[in-house]
Amino acid sequence: MSPFETISLLVSVVAVAISAVALIRSRRNHAQLIELERVHAELSRKQLAEMEEQEREAQKAKLRCHMEQQGYNNKFVITNTGQATATDIYFGLEENNEHNPLVHGDFEKKTPFPSLASGESFYLLAQIPSSVRQSAYSISLRWENEDGTQDRIVRTVAR
């Protein structure tokens, strides 16, 4: 073999080696790119699901209840902390309460409460004699959301 052929053969072998290394790196980069695209697609799906959940939550009211005491007067205060308006709001005492503190004339007049917009509150009078030692009441609230669904919560309200 002449020196020219030997040099030509060595250059060819080096070119094949460089091509092989480039091909291996290209495959590795391609696999990493595919994995990155898969992760991006999964993240996009999660973001879409979260946005849809936020849109659904925007159409729902969130009612909260607490008891306020002013002197000898007590009242259950129901507040809408959600973004949507609640309608047909029903307030109820659960069965495990010692006694019923609701003032009957006030309760019948105000329930079901017709509508409670975001940030608004209404109250129900409560009369608790000093002989009653119950420190918390188990209550339930039921209402209809703007999207037509109904929600119900059961909570314990401290006095």
Protein described:
- The chain is of the alpha+beta class.
- The chain has helices at 3-58, 104-110; strands at 63-70, 73-80, 86-93, 113-116, 121-126, 136-144, 150-158.
- The strands form two sheets. A four-stranded antiparallel sheet has the order 4-3-6-7, with no helix packed on it. Strands 1-2-5 form a three-stranded antiparallel sheet.
- 12% of the residues are buried.
Write a brief caption for the model.
With 159 residues, this protein is an alpha+beta fold. It has helices spanning 3-58, 104-110, and strands at 63-70, 73-80, 86-93, 113-116, 121-126, 136-144, 150-158. 12% of the residues are buried.
List keywords for this structure.
40% helix; alpha+beta; 159 residues; single chain; rod-shaped; 2 helices; three-stranded antiparallel sheet; four-stranded antiparallel sheet
Q: Could you tell me the number of beta strands?
A: 7
Number of helices: 2
Name the poorly predicted regions: none
Could you say which structural class the secondary elements and strand pairing correspond to?
alpha+beta
Shape: rod-shaped
Helix fraction, binned, reads 25-40%
Q: Measured on Cα atoms, how large is the radius of gyration? A: 34 Å
For the terminal residues, how far apart are their CA atoms?
104 Å
- Strand fraction: 25-35%
Q: Largest sheet, described in full?
A: 4 strands, antiparallel
User: What is the string of helix and strand elements?
Assistant: HEEEHEEEE
Order of strands across the biggest sheet? Answer: 4-3-6-7
Return the average pLDDT rounded to an integer.
91
